[in-house]
Design a protein that fits this description.
Elements lengths: L11 H13 E5 L5 E5 L2
Antiparallel strand pairs: 1-2
């Protein structure tokens, strides 16, 4: 009931978009332990 059925697979275009966002989004960990997000263009 709470899970997405197998027949609702994302399209190749959607998968490529997700991969592109994951590739360009990064997080820097500072020496004091804080994190700072940034995005590569």
């Amino acid at each position: 009931m709470y899970f997405t059925p197998d027949n609702l697979n994302p399209s190749e275009k959607t998968i490529e978009l997700i991969k592109q966002i994951a590739y360009t989004y990064r997080v820097i960990r500072m020496k004091d332990g804080t994190t700072m997000p940034y995005c590569l263009n």
